[in-house]
């Protein structure tokens, strides 16, 4: 269960405000809009991908302490999976043409011998 970043009180994942200290946890009072909050004396923009690629137009940039669009640059920069990692072709499917040819040859040999 998540905890309040200010008072460490256990809160529901959909809580809009902390029931203990009243800290705003979701933006615009909507449980579906996360409100990211900086830790200590840091700014969210320092580790945000929209700041790094210079695509953010929010007025609070580069000194945002709270933000709804914050996206951690480290989670975005993870290496994309290669096609081989996403889908591995089974061996029988790789050689299905040769297997079909071998089956036809085998059936032909059996028919000749009968
Ligand atoms: S999206 Fe928010 S945290 Fe990211 S750069 Fe813009 S203001 Fe800063
Ligand atoms: Zn709290």
Would you mind describing this structure in some detail?
There is one protein chain. With 114 residues, the chain is mostly helical. The chain has a domain at 35-113. Helices cover 30% and strands 4% of the residues. It is built from five helices and two strands. The chain has helices spanning 49-52, 73-76, 83-86, 91-94, 96-113, and strands at 36-37, 66-67. The chain has a two-stranded antiparallel sheet. The radius of gyration is 28 Å and the shape is elongated. It starts with 35 loop residues before the first strand and ends with a helix. The model has no long low-confidence stretch (mean pLDDT 89). It binds iron/sulfur cluster and zinc ion (ZN). Residues 4, 6-7, 9, 18, 20-21, 23 line the site of zinc ion.
Strand tally: 2
Shape descriptor reads elongated
Secondary-structure element order, N to C: EHEHHHH
| Major β-sheet strand ordering | 1-2
| Fraction in beta strands | under 5%
Main sheet specs: 2 strands, antiparallel
Which properties best describe this structure?
single chain; 114 residues; mainly alpha; two-stranded antiparallel ribbon; 5 helices; 30% helix; elongated; binds iron/sulfur cluster; binds zinc ion
Can I get a quick summary?
This protein has 114 residues and is mainly α. It has helices at 49-52, 73-76, 83-86, 91-94, 96-113; strands spanning 36-37, 66-67.
